[in-house]
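User: Could you go from structure to sequence for me? I need the amino acid at each position, not a summary. Structure tokens:
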């Protein structure tokens, strides 16, 4: 059985990328990361990719080009790796249809909040502030398809609730969320890979 191929897009530390690389290596995940692309040259995740022997590509946007032109170039690059899935794991740029339209139902995003809550940046901090204001008692993590340009929306593949305990600091909540992210991302990718295999059977 051919293992699924993944292209992972990152902008920063890449701890979720590391979870995927580890799961791929230890057999938890029937998929291989074939390329890691970052829009930021200093992203720690690029070093993680290099250590794992995976192509680590810096792909910045120039000031002159529009988002659409950049996304079309990015799509060309990603397409050259023939991925079965494209994983947005801490990718901090909003993609346009110039990219999304090239990979229908192949792009998934990890977001540290539950569906319909805290879309966009600083989701964990915003959840913690809402908890302190007695608005919520739990938050969570989701993995969803990216079908259009809406932010952190799209059909949900899987989600996990993370309760916020009274003694938690923001740092504690971040640690809980990140641990949940690592687990849920691997589980969601494996779920999709299994579906692909069943579809090809």
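Assistant: Here is the amino acid at each position, in order:
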């Amino acid at each position: 059985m051919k293992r699924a191929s993944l292209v992972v897009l990152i902008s920063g530390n890449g701890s979720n990328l590391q979870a995927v690389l580890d799961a791929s290596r230890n057999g938890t995940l029937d998929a291989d990361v074939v390329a890691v692309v970052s829009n930021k040259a200093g992203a720690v995740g690029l070093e993680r990719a290099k250590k794992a022997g995976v192509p680590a590509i810096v792909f910045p946007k120039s000031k002159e080009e529009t988002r659409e032109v950049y996304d079309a170039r990015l799509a060309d690059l990603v397409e050259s790796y023939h991925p079965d899935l494209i994983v947005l794991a801490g990718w901090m740029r909003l993609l346009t249809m110039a990219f999304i339209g090239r990979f229908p139902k192949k792009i998934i995003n990890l977001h540290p909040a539950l569906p319909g809550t805290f879309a966009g940046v600083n989701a964990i901090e915003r959840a913690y502030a809402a908890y302190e204001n007695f608005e919520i008692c739990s938050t969570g993590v989701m993995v969803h398809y990216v079908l259009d340009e809406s932010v952190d929306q799209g059909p949900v593949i899987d989600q996990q609730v993370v309760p916020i305990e009274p003694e938690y600091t923001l740092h504690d909540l971040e640690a809980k969320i990140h641990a949940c992210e690592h687990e849920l991302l691997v589980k969601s990718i494996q779920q999709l890979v299994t579906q692909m295999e069943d579809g090809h059977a």
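One structural detail worth keeping in mind: The two ends are 10 Å apart (CA to CA).
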